[in-house]
Amino acid sequence: MSNNKDFIYGRGAQLNVHNRFDAHDHEFRDDFLNHCATEGDVVQNSKTVLIDTFPKTIVNKVNSPDVGMGFSLNPYQGCEHGCIYCYARNSHEYWGYSAGLDFEQKILVKRNAVELLEKKISSKKWEASPIVLSGNTDCYQPIEKKLKITRQLLQTFLKYKHPVGIITKNALVQRDIDILKDLAADNLIQVNLSVTSLEEETRRILEPRTASIKKRLETIEKLSVAGIPVSVMMAPIIPSINSHEIMPLVKEISERGALGVGYTIVRLNGAIGGIFTDWIRKAMPDRADKVLHQIESVHGGSLNDSRFGTRMKGEGEFASQVAQQFKIAKAKYLKGRERPVLNCDLHEQYKDGQMKLF
Q1: What is the Cα–Cα distance from 104 to 19, expressed in whole angstroms?
Q2: Residues 216-248 pLDDT 10s
Q3: Cis peptide before 236 (omega within 30 of 0)
Q4: Cα(176)–Cα(173) distance, integer angstroms
Q5: How far apart are CA 284 and CA 11, in angstroms?
Q6: Where is the Radical SAM core domain (predicted)?
Q7: Ramachandran sector of residue 353 (left: φ over 0; alpha: ψ -120 to 50; beta: rest)
Q8: What is 43-264's CATH topology?
Q9: Which end of the chain, N or C, is more open, meaning fewer C-beta atoms within 10 Å of its C-beta?
Q10: Which DSSP helix (H) or strand (E) runs through 61?
């Protein structure tokens, strides 16, 4: 990694890009920057800010055919983990913020999330279908340790015997093993842990505020031992950054008890193309052009492909090589393992929060 003195350590994005919905743009002029340097002032405050929100709904229907979930729930908007490649960055623009540093620093907290979930799944019109926590941003990002909104949501799912999935890259999920075990007893839970690399230095610069690789591997093992179904997402695969790790990573997670593995190939949609390009030229200047060109080769000459069916896995020689490696890795290390189908049959009996006797 570069020793660039202007690099903002502990953050993924290195700048705030223009919000496409804003009529006006702003920039830091040289005279302002020089003044800050002379006076010792900070140009941008890097502290995380929590913003309370009270939405009207909390469960979102997912219409994308290649995401693999029907409904999602996100107790937080924005994510302090700061993963540089995160597709969710663009969603922050809808709230009036930048997809860059704002996404990591301005976290919207849905204070009424539990109340809205209970109202939704206790409705007579609702038919049980798995709801995935973190379809957009991580439900176990750092502030969850204090606020415990995700824990309360899991308690609500348990109360109503409703199936739920979790996607996270934070070891904080271990805190809730007690609830997850109770959900697992009725086949109401699946956990998907994101593990992008086995190399801690790669993790540190790609995903600066996430759990360490050691803690994530430990989490897979602890969930598995507790009887909680856990799979792994190696997402995204980034050429020349983590693309060489497929076989060793699948081997490692299989030894920890993972039931399956999935992957996506990086696509830099919307504002993320500019954010990632700026980041890699500062973080990895020696290989920036190579990585960017390889990403383009997977998406028909562009950093992004929005077509359903191809956007997640890419096309071309590199994409084919990745697909083949995963096929071999799964056959070698995960043969015979299957993720259980979540149970949607119990919920109707618990619509009022307790077992119906008649």
Answers
A1: 15
A2: 999 999 999 999 999 999 999 999 999 999 999
A3: yes
A4: 6
A5: 15
A6: 65-302
A7: left
A8: TIM Barrel (3.20.20)
A9: C
A10: strand 59-61
Q: Which of 172, 167, 160, 159 is nearest to 133 (CA)?
A: 167
pLDDT in tens, 29-47: 555 445 455 656 555 566 8
What's the CA dihedral at 321, 326, 332, 334 to 10 degrees? 180
Residue pair 157/128 in contact (Cβ under 8 Å)? The answer is no
| Contact between 233 and 265 (Cβ < 8 Å) | no
The per-residue pLDDT of the chain, averaged, comes to: 91
Q: CA nearest 173: which of 218, 207, 205, 235?
A: 218
Contacts by 173-177, CB closer than 8 A, 24 or more apart: 173/140, 173/219, 173/223, 174/219, 174/222, 174/223, 175/145, 175/151, 176/150, 176/151, 177/222, 177/223, 177/226, 177/228
Residue type, 182: D
- The mean-pLDDT minimum among 99-103, 221-225, 328-332 falls in 99-103
Helical packing angle, 246-255 and 317-333, nearest 10°? 30
Domain extent listing, the chain: 43-264
Among 146, 265, 258, 129, residue whose Cα is nearest residue 191: 258
Confirm whether pTM is higher than 0.85. Answer: yes
- For the chain, how far is it from start to end, CA to CA, in angstroms? 65
Burial class (CB in 10 A: 0-12, 13-18, 19+), 96: exposed
The confidence score (pLDDT) of residue 33 equals 44
Cα–Cα dist 339/2, whole Å: 41
174 half-sphere exposure, CB direction, 13 A CA radius: 14
**DSSP per-residue codes, 73-117:** E-SEES-TT--TT-GGGGGGGGGTS-SSHHHHHEEEEETTHHHHH
Residues in the chain: 358
Q: Is 16 helix (H, G, I), strand (E, B) or coil?
A: coil
